[in-house]
Specification:
Number of strands: 2
Radius of gyration: 19 Å
Structural class: mainly alpha
Strand content: 5-15%
Number of helices: 8
Largest sheet: 2 strands, antiparallel
Helix content: 55-70%
């Protein structure tokens, strides 16, 4: 068995390991979707689900609910619009804002997509040995990062030296 330097690095290897896992999930999911003729991308799943739940939301509302950047959501939504999955209508209260909603194409496709998402969810549970421990640990990381991010903590530690 080969040695994994990122594991060997312990704490210092964390970001590399998270990136490696994220890339693996994204590429594998893309392959899964392509193999089944789906014209969606892995990270669209969260946009489909949040708009399915809330019907209409602005970019900012989605960004806040997912704790992702405004530009990241704009990028996702623009790609989904180009494929015809999202419609944007002007907010009747504030004409500068747009309410986003799933298009009829998206609504029609949801039952099929949900079948693949369910299979993917089961795959994740298998990968995680049906344990939620990592989810609890990620919550700790997220909570701690919301208090003070990596840069802030590193600056503080550097100042101690």
């Amino acid at each position: 068995m080969k040695n994994d330097f990122l594991i060997e690095m312990e704490y210092a290897g964390l970001t590399g390991r998270l990136k490696r896992m994220s890339d693996s999930f994204i590429y594998s999911t893309k392959e899964f979707y392509r193999a089944h003729g789906l014209e969606i991308e892995p990270n669209w799943h969260i946009i489909f689900l949040i708009l399915q739940k809330h019907e209409k939301l602005t970019i900012m509302e989605i960004a806040e609910a997912l704790d992702l950047s405004h530009p990241a959501i704009v990028q996702l939504v623009d790609k989904m619009k180009k494929k015809g999955y999202i419609e944007a209508i002007k907010d009747h209260k504030d004409k500068r804002k747009f309410q986003l909603m799933l298009s009829q194409k998206a609504k029609d496709k949801l039952p099929e997509l949900e079948k693949y998402w369910k299979a993917g969810l089961e795959a994740l549970k298998e990968i995680m040995n049906h344990q939620k421990t990592i989810l609890d640990e990620l919550k700790i990381l997220e909570d701690n990062l919301s208090i003070a991010d990596f840069k802030e903590r590193s600056e503080k530690n550097l100042a101690r030296e």
